[in-house]
Amino acid sequence: MTLAATVGSLTTGTTHLTTGTTDLATGTTNLVTRTTNLVTGTAHLAAESRGFLSPTGVEIAFLLVGLVTFGAAVITVTTRQLVHAALWLVVALGGLAVEYLLLTAEFIAWVQVLIYVGSVVVLLLFGLMLTRAPIGRSPDADSGNRPVALAVAVVAAAALVWVVVDAFRTTWIDLDGAPAGSTEVTGASLFQHWVLPFEALSVLLLAALVGAIVLSRKAKAEARPEADAAATAPASTAPDTPGGTDTRRDTEGAR
Amino acid sequence: MHLAYPAVLSALLFCTGLYGVLARRNAILVLMSVELMLNAVNLNLVAFDVWLSRTAEETLHSGQALTLFTIAIAAAEIGIGLAIVLAVYRNRGTSDIDKLRDTAEGHDPDHPDGDATDSDASATKAAAEKAEATA
């Protein structure tokens, strides 16, 4: 009987001991959790204070390409040689494509290269040549309200940069892991959630195509009688009108 | 990457395009500046889409879809815009938007700055008539 009581008390003591160990283990776990929290907090703090003074490699690449892009854009809007403006626009748009790649939006980057660098700039060059833009420096590329434009642009840039930096100073884009804009991801979201706008967009593109052709053809039909009637009209515009229209239409067809 | 980098670059590009639209005289250069502004908006959309798809687990990818739509609309816009510019050039002989002031308020239509080519044409016509008369 006493043996049983002794065994019972022993068992109880063991249970207490076990409980104590469990408590200790829990305490250790709590401590570990707290330490983890502390580490996480430190990491979070590091991410927040992951300053602009210690940029990552991606940020350095983004900054360099961004400088090139911005410089090309500034030259585009300030150069006096019209064809050079279009060529610098190629540099700016290509730099933006590289920025999309750095932001892991691959599909957008290739679409940018295809559509902007491939077709829009070619269309702009066609337009420049069809309107007989001077090849050399043209002194009247800028209009008279240039100081006002400069003031407006600088004020807008200062306000926008201030607001944006103030709002997103600590926001961090996590670029690790699977790319956010691979063809698979973009295609899935485009054809699952955005099918209706996509189809509407195709109709809009068709309308734009037809509209461009109509604009070109109507002017051509009217240009003939004018050219016959007004023989004293500026001789430079009349002869190249059919050729210009044909080239224009070919360009549109190629698009 | 800090979100501030693409946002600041986008703001700067937008203001560059704004300057170009306001300061340029040739219509095609104005169209180029409009392209710059559209691209600035695209960069903003892509950056915020990447950020939101990671942070907020957003799976719609609305930013990238909107970027694709903007690119397509920009292509349509440049096509129509160039067609209009070419039509204006064919009719007026110039693509300077400073000279296209027919709908300006309180503007004298016979002003030499307003339609220089018309006055040039009438001047040459008058000169031709004068030459015929003297002959």
Automatic annotation (TrEMBL), chain A:
Keyword Lipid metabolism among record annotations: no
Location of this chain's protein in the cell: Cell membrane
Residue ranges that the Swiss-Prot or TrEMBL entry lists as coiled coil: none
EC number in record: 7.1.1.-
Biased composition (Low complexity): 228-245
One GO cellular component term: plasma membrane
The protein's name in its UniProt record: NADH-quinone oxidoreductase subunit J
Automatic annotation (TrEMBL), chain B:
Record's subcellular location: Cell membrane; Membrane
Reactions performed catalytically: a quinone + NADH + 5 H(+)(in) = a quinol + NAD(+) + 4 H(+)(out)
GO cellular component, one term: plasma membrane
Chain intervals for the UniProt region annotation (Disordered): 99-135
Transmembrane intervals: 65-89
Pfam families referenced in this protein's UniProt entry, alphabetically: Oxidored_q2
EC number: 7.1.1.-
Protein keywords: Cell membrane, Membrane, NAD, Quinone, Translocase, Transmembrane, Transmembrane helix, Transport
GO process annotations (BP): ATP synthesis coupled electron transport
Function: NDH-1 shuttles electrons from NADH, via FMN and iron-sulfur (Fe-S) centers, to quinones in the respiratory chain. The immediate electron acceptor for the enzyme in this species is believed to be a menaquinone. Couples the redox reaction to proton translocation (for every two electrons transferred, four hydrogen ions are translocated across the cytoplasmic membrane), and thus conserves the redox energy in a proton gradient.
Family label: Belongs to the complex I subunit 4L family.
Protein name, UniProt field: NADH-quinone oxidoreductase subunit K
Taxonomic lineage: Bacteria, Bacillati, Actinomycetota, Actinomycetes, Kitasatosporales
